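Project standup — Tuesday

K.O.: blocked on the structure for the chain from last sprint. Re-posting the sequence here as requested.
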Amino acid sequence: MKLFDVYSLFDVVPVKAQGCKVWDEKGQEYLDLYGGHAVISVGHTHPKYVAGITEQLGKIGFYSNSVINPLQTTLAEKIQKLSGYTNYSLFLCNSGAEANENALKLASFHTGRDKVVAFKRSFHGRTSGAVAVTDNPKIVSPFNANHKVVFAELNNIASVEDALKDNDVAAVIVEGIQGCGGIHIPTNEFFQQLSALCKKHGTVLVLDEIQSGYGRSGKFFAHQHTGIKPDIITMAKGIANGFPVGAILISPEFEPVKGMLGTTFGGNYLAMAAAIAVADIFESEKLVDNAAEVGKYLIENMPQSSRIKEVRGRGLMIGIEFNEPIKEIRSKLLYEKHIFTGVAGTNMIRLLPPLCLTKADCDTFLKAFREVL
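H.V.: unblocked you, prediction finished:
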């Protein structure tokens, strides 16, 4: 049996990883500035992380959500402390797309409405509802396209106001920082106006913090740079450092009803052991503060070049937009300088490294980057 050929693959076979480094089958070392799509938060194979999963596996690895799992409560308490959301509830699932599906479903239950406002250049996942609110027609099938979705302009409050005027919108979903769309940052004023507008129209505000959350922006959530409190916050990626975990934080205004949401694998013992280990490492190693400090250093020391149009980002969520396609530059970084990077579109290199990145790691990248330019 062959694999369904949907991925464009680099000719690299990683077999070992530690911290911000990856080694391939030939023993070549790479600096990882992409973290597998922003997933690796505390660093590859962190010893506390490995120990947490290993110890749990020796006890019990899985049972369904038909029994009490105290590890879920432990994780909720740790996320409460890290995020500052003291009176919100936690629902656990498996991925970012599933988190967004559940958030939109919950908003629809809560309001009795079926329409959603999303934003141009957005990305929210590939499942049915999540991909329908993603602004990329190439990955939206006719089956997915039947959802009632309006795409507004980011940082244009008038376009949102027009979409909400009939009081028929269940949810507005917006990324804390647009990731796949090109590291576009909503302004503080826009987020504050958006929050007020949603309250005015009885519309649920869903903050997609799947890529921009969990410390990546230099705050625990990117929207916390703006002072707003959304109704629902979706999370995934960095929660468990590579173990599949998704989650939503839910305002106390929402009333849970037995059976309204559910999942087979979400919140399982191994997932919770992984996520608890990550939360402990976040606190002990002050990774949110490190993301802010090291990200600022990286942005401020980015080389000047006529080939670069703009550098955008917060913390360790950084986009380098070029005046030209970046395929050759990215290939040279990987195959000649042995540095993993990501992309957004055709003209942007995206940096989403583990949050334990050091300034010395930055210097390694900056030197290589200058040489490639």
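K.O.: great, moving the ticket to review. Residues 269-285 form the longest helix (17 residues). The CA atoms of residues 31 and 339 lie 5 Å apart.
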